[in-house]
Amino acid sequence: MKTHTSWSAWCSCVLVAAMLAWALPSAALAQEAVIRKNLPERLPNLPKIDEVVRTAIPGIWEVRIGTDLFYTDEQGNHLFTGELIDTRTRANLSRERIDKLTAFDFSKLPLKDAIVIKQGNGARKMAVFGDPNCGYCKRFERDVASLRNVTVYTFLYPILGADSTAKSRDIWCAKDPAKAWRDWMINGTLPASTAGARCDTAALERNTELGRKHRVQGTPAAVFEDGSRAPGAVSADELEKRLVAAAGKG
Questions:
Q1: pTM of the full predicted structure?
Q2: Rounded distance between C-alpha atoms, residue 116 and residue 178, angstroms
Q3: What's the CATH code of the domain at 156?
Q4: Lowest CB count within 10 Å: 170, 184, 224, 237, which one?
Q5: What distance in Å separates the CA atoms of residue 85 and residue 127, rounded to the nearest whole number?
Q6: Band of the pLDDT at 227, cuts 50, 70, 90?
Q7: What are phi and psi of 115, to 5 degrees?
Q8: Which of the 8 DSSP states describes residue 113?
Q9: Are residues 78 and 148 in the same domain?
Q10: Is residue 42 within 8 Å of residue 32, measured between CB atoms?
Q11: Quick one: pLDDT at residue 7?
């Protein structure tokens, strides 16, 4: 009799657990639907919502629009921005989430839109976002040129104004873009003007969109084969360390 009672109790527990497992996802979907409905109705100018997910904080949901994060309550009554910090670990949960959303997959970079410079055997690879009017980029380019056995993919990223766009066009449309880039960045030799010339500059627009998608907010910005990045004009020694680490040899 005790065995039968124990068996019945065990079955009941399993049934309750199964019902809870089914109910939790359903409740989450319903809550997501409420948020997706209320926010656009109340904020007509809000861009299209890409994703709504629970956060680690009970009752607070993340609303993702592109790579921008917002937070709201379960009814979408309030919308706010900011950073979620786990005070126990001091982890910046918002930053970790954005880093994941904007991470690079080197194998998927549109390398056809980049200036390619092979140094030595070119076995190692790195990508660089650079603006021709960026002083730090010029210093950085000298350090990049000193590296051995690396292929450098430079994505022209004109974010400093109209003249940056004009110079990027002249470099991209030059007979030898790699030479034009290095001549300007290292030697200070202006590329010949290509104004009025027939040249497909759509790559420059795609580079701008690529950088925005991955939140490249300044130049220079280096990206390595493992997807890691180094913002700013890091030294040649630091670049060498990062190249070694990215190749799995560190």
A1: 0.76
A2: 7
A3: 3.40.30.10
A4: 237
A5: 32
A6: very high
A7: -80, 130
A8: G
A9: no
A10: no
A11: 53
